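Dear colleague,

Following up on Tuesday's group meeting, I ran the structure prediction for the two-component complex that the binding team flagged. I've pasted the input sequences exactly as they went in, so you can double-check that nothing got truncated or mislabelled along the way. The structure tokens for the whole assembly follow below. Feel free to forward this to whoever is handling the docking comparison.

Inputs:
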Amino acid sequence: MEKFTVLTGVAAPMLMTNINTDLIAPSHFPGKKPEEAVLMPMRDKMFANLRYFPDGARKPDFVLDQARYRDTRFLLAGPNFGCGSSRETAVWSLQEAGIRCVIAPSFGDIFHDNSFQNGFLPLKLPMDDIERIAAALGRSNASELTIDLENRELRVPGMEPVAFDLPDERRLPLLEGLDQLGFMMRSEADIVAFEAADEKTRPWAYPG
Amino acid sequence: MSKTPFERIWDQHVIKEYGDGRALIHIDRHFAQEGTSGRAFDGLRRAGLKVRRPDLTVGTIDHGLSTLPGRKIDSYAASTVRNLAMRQNCKDFGVRLFDIDDPNHGIVHVVSPNLGFALPGCTYVCGDSHTASCGGVGAWAWGIGTTEVMQVLATQTLIMRKPKTLRASFHGVLPRGLFAKDMILALIGRYGIEAGVGHVVQYAGSAISALPLEGRLTVCNMSIEFGARGGLIAADDTTFQYLHGRELSPKGALWDQAVADWRALFGDTDCEYDRDIEIDCSTLRPQVTWGTTPQDVIAVDEAVPDPTSATDPARRAMMERAIAYIGLTPGQKIAGTPIDVAFIGSCTNGRLSDLEAAAEVARGRKVAPGVKALVVPGAAHVKAAAEAAGLHKIFLEAGFEWRESACSMCVAAGGDIVPPGQRSISTSNRNFEGRQGPGARTHLASPAMVAAAAVTGCITDVRTLLN
């Protein structure tokens, strides 16, 4: 997995509440047949129902299609980002589009875990901070901010650095780009021992 | 105070603790579906790994299937590649597949309890957010992502952070014409779609104990709409009677030991939860959503709320957006709103008792002119049982379509899609923008309410149609 250390890039404001995974990674593309849509890259289908009218015409005001947000690497969002379906395509779509982090006050649980599994950062900040950051970026020319995961702070032009919490068990795998499965597989002996003991205690839980 | 049932299940499944709040948890049961497992199997292949316990995983194909009579695995072209890959994956890795002609084929969360695959006190996962359905039999059941599916296939474990516990107590007696769906919608409406985040919800109280098992599956199904990955109901005699003798349930002496273990696990009710919330069922009226999240819900005799009544600006903005999308007017009575599509099915409400409740309303009536009405049984066994009881005739005579089982219009799958701008009333679980198709407008309700709307052509209080 790609490491996440200190990243600088454009942050786009999508301050809506409850941006669910159906909105992020829809199963259909407006105006296209399903068999065509299934072949499209995920990044092109991302947010399709916010980005296009049902007939496939482009909505002129969608934030990520504005010139200043063309190279967006971070999203600023409202509460409960990624609620809904477990589809990991929500994370993969954002990543395919070059986005590495969503900053929101809260996240849907499954999206939150799926993000970390992919080296993608779901960063929790209070809504007040997010609104202040969005306002500061709106005043700046570049809309760029820096996420410093090593020092756990966000640097935004025209603002004091914003500190954030992230426990080491979440942070270190991101910094090192570690894949969790390799780590889990080192416990094979423990798993075998657990199953042997558990099958004696709960024999009904194991098929004959 | 003793530990909650969830905490006891957690303790029983900890293989090791990492000292930072995480634990390696053993997974008793895993159900793979074609939509979210393809990349996981591909990952195993690339890494040269096997499915570690093929005896603890089963699979089916439920999302991308046509529901038209006589459908084949490739009838819906957009999903053919994925469906065929699922067949190949199960074959290559030695996983039992309930293929589309198998009598146990159907939507994972409908098939699993019926098979006795999901069991009380077990850890149970599937790459689908509605996996919590199986909490209805007393399993700790939760939805996972595709990377986690691969981890379960490879190790039969997941690294978990212990969720908090929330008890939602449903008091009183549910009035006639109301169902499990009304209970869970009312709960989400009152407490919001984020209330369960970070929690395992235990549904409790007299109205839950009184629910038949299928209703319990419906309540637990929508845990994720309440924000919770997992939700469960204490297993009791209702559960044991339901599970006894099912194909994969324990048999003989193992069954007796299992029941004794389950009674011990769930018998102690003097437990302390991190949060306790309550709802009184005796005053509930049939629920129907007016907006684009499941918390946007009112009783059928109420009016669409006015966004200016919301004090929180973010909530007001969401309400305005929802009302614009759904095409209603604040203050307008929801009853009487004309509908174009009525959908009865899904993992939420695609079980036999759901079809019975809908058929009771449809019997001797006709689907209103211009309304497309679909009944999609949640599994082959549901379809067979409904046909044995003659329910399909009631639906067909009324003008409903009678289909093969799959996820269907809940998620605009398999070709069952609500056209842009059309209004659907649906027994499914999500009224999100675009969920039933780009521009589709969705109202969630119980099967009886959906049948009532189908035969009247508009959102209708089903109690006015019951004898």
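Chain B touches chain A through 76 residues (CB under 8 Å).

Cheers,
M.
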